[in-house]
Amino acid sequence: MAKSNERKHRILVLGGGPGGYEAALAGAQLGADVTLVERAGVGGAAVLTDVVPSKSLIATAGAVQAVRDSGKLGVQAFVPGAHGKPVRPEIAVNLAAVNKRLLAMAGAQSVDMLRSLEDAGVRVVQGEGRLDGHSAVLVSTATGGTDFDRIEADTIVIAVGASPRELDTAKPDGERILTWKQLYNLPAIPEHLVVVGSGVTGAEFANAYRTLGSEVTLVSSREQVLPGEDPDAAAVIEREFARLGMHVMSKSRASTVERTENGVLVTLEDGRTVEGSHCLMAVGSIPNTHGLGLEEAGVQVSDSGHIKVNKVARTNVPSIYAAGDCTDFFPLASVASMQGRTAIMHALGDFVRPIDLRNVSANVFTYPEIATVGWTEHSLADATDVAKAVSHTVPLSLNPRAKMIGFTDGFVKLFAWEASGTVIGGVIVAHRASELIFSLSLAVEHRLTVDQVAAAFTVYPSMTGAITDAARALHRH
């Protein structure tokens, strides 16, 4: 126990997104004197303009999809037409109401997080900050102001996040040419949305807006959408996109996007053009590290501007840590939160386990969802110094629960070391796969064998039964 007259450890957190929020909360819970500086609102872009609103929009699209697919289960909704003949009604989506709801929900979540920090004793300052050496931060509470308060700290955590990447030849205007942060100002469903970029963000929004009623053209520079995901999983999503009537332009790279009188004109590098009412640019993100004083403080950054950190989120400067999308780690909100907690626990001398990215679970919120954890076919193919791995795939068409709910275009794939049977990774493509992956995350984190996974009871019928089926298939004598 520290004596009452001892000075508390001072922690200064720049940025209130998932990484900064968790760092500040952990610091306060461990008895430190914590100040958090955030320019927009607690929760950062993840809560206000990214994860929370986008996944809320996708949930709305999922509700629309469920109604449309209900006919497979024998559910029929009709209104009487001429001569009493049943006519199936159209599904109407009020995008203005949807956007109002999700932005209000994001704002409420931000307020809840602010209250949690204040209740824990964190001092929250709305403003912008930059490093002043390795043990202080200059904070301006006026946007673009020149007057700064200097706050000294024993530990600094940088969690300033990232912003959508913008191209000079396709400058967003917030009306017709949009980043994913600007979609929530649309008053109505776009008539024809052209999505440039087929990574996670592009695929999720293309799926959602097509389901909501937009005509969608997805411009993909790769041969297959979601190039970073399991190829079998990406193939399922491509089939779903085709079923929805989406136009996917593979091996096509956008050169310019221009605003026209009534919409947009997208010109591809091979000279072809695509006309639409709106264009979403989903071409990656850039870290918000410019002007933070990193170089002057001696903090190492990559050529892309990402802060270099180790597995406990510390930079090369011992007193400075970093978390989230501004670092060269995995850009996920869950990883940012873990980095924030890990940074504080390490700085305060608490027990800490270095973050192992092999154990990180991730999810693509398309319909169906793609959830992954651990080793994948891509990582196994790229590795040259690992033991031999085996895998087994169970199609959902064999799963009784999947048949009952009318969703069978998906699978569970399990990876294990051949010699030991230790589970090293998995892929689940299914409705709400994000809720199913946790059991595989536990298996990977705690190095369970396929026999140990197979020995656990699953409910019959259930989607999780496909996991134990895959584990049993990998049993070795």
UniProtKB/TrEMBL annotation:
Keyword Flavoprotein included in the entry's annotation: yes
Cofactor(s) for this UniProt protein: FAD
Cofactor note: Binds 1 FAD per subunit.
Binding locations of NAD(+): 197-204, 284
InterPro entries per UniProt: FAD/NAD-bd_sf (IPR036188), FAD/NAD-binding_dom (IPR023753), FAD/NAD-linked_Rdtase_dimer_sf (IPR016156), Pyr_nuc-diS_OxRdtase (IPR001100), Pyr_nucl-diS_OxRdtase_dimer (IPR004099)
Pfam families attached to this UniProt entry: Pyr_redox_2, Pyr_redox_dim
Chain ranges of the Pyridine nucleotide-disulphide oxidoreductase dimerisation domain: 362-470
Residues involved in FAD binding: 55, 129, 325
GO molecular function: flavin adenine dinucleotide binding; NAD(P)H dehydrogenase (quinone) activity
Record keywords: FAD, Flavoprotein, NAD, Nucleotide-binding
Domain named FAD/NAD(P)-binding: residues: 10-340
Similarity field: Belongs to the class-I pyridine nucleotide-disulfide oxidoreductase family.
Keyword Isomerase attributed: no
Lineage: superkingdom: Bacteria
Record's protein name: NAD(P)H-quinone dehydrogenase
